[in-house]
Amino acid sequence: MKKNRMAALLCIFCATAVLAGCSFGVRQTGNVDNENLPQTTASDETRPSDGGSKTDDNEQTDPPSTDSRVIAISFPDASVPRWASDAENMKQGLEALGYQVQIQYAQNEPKRQAEQIMEFAAGKVDCVVAAPVNDKKLKKAAAKLQKAKIPLIAYDSLPMDTDAVSFLAAFDHKGIGNSIGKEIVKKAGLDDLADGEYRTAEFFMGPKDDPESLYLYQGLMEVLQPYLDQGILVSNTARTSFEDTAIADWSQETAKQRCENYLEGYYTQEDLDICITAYDGFAYGCKEVFMAAGYTQDNWPVVSGVGSELAACKNILDGTQSFTVCKDSRVLAAECVEMVDALMNGEEPQVNNAQLYDNHVMIVPAHLCGTSMIDADNLQEVLIDGGYYTQQELDG
Known about the structure:
Helix content: 40-55%
Shape: elongated
Largest sheet: 6 strands, parallel
Strand content: 5-15%
Distance between the termini: 41 Å
Strand order of the largest sheet: 2-1-3-4-5-11
Number of helices: 13
Order of helices and strands: HEHEHEHEEHEHEHHEHEHEHEEHH
Mean pLDDT: 87
């Protein structure tokens, strides 16, 4: 039943994308180790009230009809295409199930988002889905929802320092890190080097205050740390810790400046072989540096990315980026709709990780969605044939 309902939601989202003239990914390659995600359900210790009504003797009563229930969505910024499309996808999916939907955007201001969520609490909506502008700024707003007995589902990122989060719908960032590490090993040929050979590498990770950035780093290092320990992978800067490699605010300019400093200070006698970035934007900045430094096709480094942005796809085809990770937000939106519908019907949403997402107060049960590894070999099949981009967009 869940698979059929999910398929129906994805069909709705496809139609929405066509009508809106937008492109969204539709295919997962299976490169991420999703089969290793623990198939668990939320325990009583980690799951707050599920929003269904119960009698005093704990017998479940029939929930109200969906057409009388209001789902509120709080997203960061309508000017960012990803958030606008995700909100519209969720709205279409929820309305198809009979729910009323309210959407608020915070213009990327944490205080504004908190105020909007408090208004949702006062307005007695039935459930709130929130993608935090700032993970640490929703504690008071979440407490208001909890007091009003309104469940909060975190979307894509986890609110910190609160016990008022019911569930999380997100991508498997630790799995993404694992997948990047394995792709680096393969594309750099780390398992095929002769004794004494090594490859140089530098790391450009996400912000320190972003839990998902840390999970990606941890997954990456599960794969690459043994190669660093054995001297097969060498960082001339010795900057390999999360703290030393994190880049604040996802700044492309900071990544560019850092890469310039690395080449000028540590790579005058040998090339940088591998540029490991956690974001396509970082890869763009590093590309500018490599071009200015005179790197050519003969010594161009292996360059990773995350986001499958159109510019990254073009760079993959021209050989200046090795691969990117596609996070299909359409799939995430559909999964979140499933979570909401389960809660509103007094059921327990399906989760596949009830151990990883610690927000300093509780372990939040999560459903983690898989991603796709994209390189020159499968870009056409996955992103163009799969409807993520049109050929015209890619050629433009």
